[in-house]
Each structure stands twice: as C-alpha cells, then as structure tokens.
Amino acid sequence: MEDLLRPIYQERASNPNTLGIILIERKTPDSPITDNFDVILLNIVGNSEINWREKHYELYNGNTAVMHTITDDLLRRWIDTNGYRKAIEWIVAGKAIFDRNEYVSGLKKQLRSFPFEKRDLRKAMEFGKLVKSYTEVKDLYMSEQYKDAFTRMVHSLHYLARLAVIEKGYYPEVTLWNQVRKIDPEVYKLYDELIESHEEIAKRVQLMILAADFAISRKAKVSAKHLLDIMETKNNVLSYEEIKQNPSVKPYELDLAAILNYLTEKGILSPVRIGTKGAGVYQRQYRVNQSRGI
Question: What are phi and psi of 172, to 5 degrees?
Fold first, then answer.
C-alpha cells in the first residue's frame, strides 16, 4: 500500500514547508480511526492559507486513501484542547514516513510525556463538561425523564473517565473504557455498574447520582487547578467577566459559569457581594478560599 502512495507523499516531502508525514493503515473492517479509509496520510506543514485540507483517493486495487494536510499550529491546538481526538491516535499509532529534523519524533515524545501545564488545562476543560452534564442528569431525573437521565449519565461518566486518564498523565484514547479499566478501576466500576446492573433505569440513575457526586467532589480541586491558579495570581476578588477575559480560560469559557457555581457550592471558592445602585442587589464576585477544602 505504501508503495502505491509513494509518488503522492514524496511530492509533499520535497516541499520545504512540509514538517512530517505520518501513515496510518486500517486494521479492522470497521475503522473509526481512519473513517473506514484503508490508509490515512497525515501531512503536517509549517504554514498554509488553509489550515486543514483533505483529499480522497481511490487506488487501482480498490483500496481507498485520504490525505489530511494540516498546519502545525492547528494540530497542536487539537492536541492541547482535544479539538480532534483522532489526530492524537494518528500520531501515536502512525508510522512516520517523512520526518524533517525529527519533528514527528518530537510530537510522539510530547504525547508520551503530557506536560503538567497542558494536563491542567485539559482537566479544567473536561471538568467543566462533567459538571454541566451531571447537573443535567439531576434535573432530568427529578423531572422523571429517566431514559434521558441515563443517557446523560453515560456522557458524565465519559467525562469523569477522561479526567481519570489525564490525571495519570495520558491522553484519552478513542477506546476509552479499555484504557480506564487499567488506569482507574474505581471509575471503570461506576460505568460497569450503570451499564450492567439489572435494576430499573430509574434506580440505576438514582444510585449513580450519589456515587458520581462523591467522585466529582473528590476530583474537583485537582481538576479545577488551572482556573484556581489563574485566580490566585490576581490575588484579589474577581468578577465573572474579569475571569472570562483571561485568554487562558478561553478553551473552557462556555463552561466557566458552571465551574464557578460548582466550586462555590463546594466551598472551594468564596462568593463576595459587591454593592450596586439597586437596593438589595449585589454583584457576585469570587475569591479562592485559601483552604480550597470541600
């Protein structure tokens, strides 16, 4: 297969703007990693007017291939923010067929090491999604929408599982639960109990709400470290808008309000009332509780 594609990728390799080319082959009949193409070529370039191009090919033997040409900037954003999970697996599992100045080797090394500062950002992002999803579970359960609550709980446990994986220093894979089973058996057990239980759906959700509440609370401080560190550097009371304007929180700004409310409920943040022109109306601002305790 690689021989058939060589003329295509060698043309890209000769371009000085090309940093590396990775080949990923289809391993199973149904392959979500390759979108059911037989081969993926990931062509990484330094810069381009279009930051992501995709070309599809059909080979004379009936096989199919796709070439993704992507800028280094976009690829690194995907890695840092989980913007396109498949890209991480392409880098980890793929074969470097062109590697200018060990660029691809460096990417693979980065994915193996997962620096702490990048972990903190990813944990905050997953934590925001988890808090919002878990809140929806409780609301759906209270309104007796049990099947929807069950579906939402499955999503919540996925966010919890990704948090567990990131805490251990790994990037979450597409085959997440196989990964979690080895890394965090306790989180895996929650998922197993929800899916495999013979209780009625309503009872399963009810029990899982209690278990998930404990698990989320226990992870809250470490998961929100990225946000708490930002707030502490300001060393004062901050409004929602002041926090939101910090460029570092942009990857999870849509979940920021949910995170702040949760951390306040758990005593990790202290609410501070600031007077307004309206009698009895206060602006709510936030301060990091020095104990950060729950």
Answer: -60, 140
Paired with 109 in beta bridges are none
Which residue spans within the chain are E strands per DSSP?
A: 18-25, 39-45, 52-58, 64-71, 95-99, 238-239, 269-275, 282-288
Q: What are the tens digits of pLDDT across the range 111-160?
A: 888 888 889 999 999 999 999 999 999 999 999 999 999 999 999 999 99
Any domain includes 294: no
Alpha-carbon distance of 240 to 154, in angstroms, equals 30
Among 94, 102, 82, smallest CA distance to 172 is for: 82
SS3 percent helix, strand, coil of the chain, rounded to 5, is: 60, 15, 25
**DSSP-assigned beta bridge partners for residue 274:** 283
Q: What is the pLDDT of residues 166-214, one digit of tens each?
A: 998 888 877 789 899 999 999 999 999 999 999 999 999 999 999 999 9
Asked if 258 and 282 sit in the same domain, the reply is yes
Same domain, 30 and 106: yes
For the chain, what is the domain count? 2
Same domain for 96 and 222: no
